[in-house]
Write a structure and sequence with these properties.
Layout (H helix, E strand, L loop, with lengths): L10 E3 L6 E3 L28 E2 L6 E2 L4 E4 L2 E4 L7 E2 L2 E7 L2 H13 L5 E4 L28 E6 L3 H10 L5
Antiparallel strand pairs: 1-2, 3-4, 5-6, 7-8, 8-10, 9-10
The protein binds zinc ion (3 copies).
């Protein structure tokens, strides 16, 4: 029997990725699965969306987006390096520059995280990137220091970095 007194938000599990979602969520923020019918692609108003991009939070049809490594991403964001829910918004070999970017994002209330992987010693093969959403290295070198932000903060972070003229 249902307890009518219970006004706590309903805790549900995403049918696709099993992460916790709220009962009133329209889509899963982790994988982009849509829970409601009749949500249309933001580019094709008469085509039903097959997922919500987990970076820009817009719905897209299967022509405009795809599930890559358990996340639904639109075409624009499918090339982003994503690792454990964080996406790369900036990378540089200069640590000072990276620290500056991190501080700016923190001051804007975001949650940046610096990721740096040391290249294995004695490795002769040039490794480009550690993780990529679509399997394309994108030419990011492995020993750059990366600034990662939670996927949902990417759009805001890039606005800030563009304003600072750190990225174009
Ligand atoms: Zn999910
Ligand atoms: Zn997107
Ligand atoms: Zn579409």
């Amino acid at each position: 029997m249902k307890n009518q007194e219970n006004i706590e938000p309903e805790e549900l599990e995403c049918s696709n990725c099993k992460s916790h979602v709220n009962g009133d969520d329209e889509f899963c923020p982790e994988c982009g699965t849509i829970f409601e019918d009749g949500i249309m692609c933001s580019l094709h108003k008469d085509t039903e969306a097959s997922g919500v991009c987990t970076i820009c939070c817009l719905p897209f049809c299967e022509e405009c987006g795809a599930e890559i490594n358990t996340r639904f991403l639109c075409e624009t964001h499918s090339g982003y390096e994503i690792y454990q829910g964080m996406a790369r918004v900036f990378g540089d070999l200069d640590d000072t520059k990276v620290q500056y970017v991190k501080t700016c994002l923190e001051q804007a209330g975001l949650h940046p995280f610096i990721y740096c992987k040391v290249q294995p010693k004695g490795g002769t093969r040039l490794v480009y990137t550690l993780f990529e959403a679509n399997g394309d290295s994108g030419g990011h070198i492995v020993n750059e220091v990366k600034v990662m932000v939670p996927c949902q903060e990417v759009v805001k972070a890039e606005d800030i970095l563009r304003e600072l003229k750190v990225i174009i």
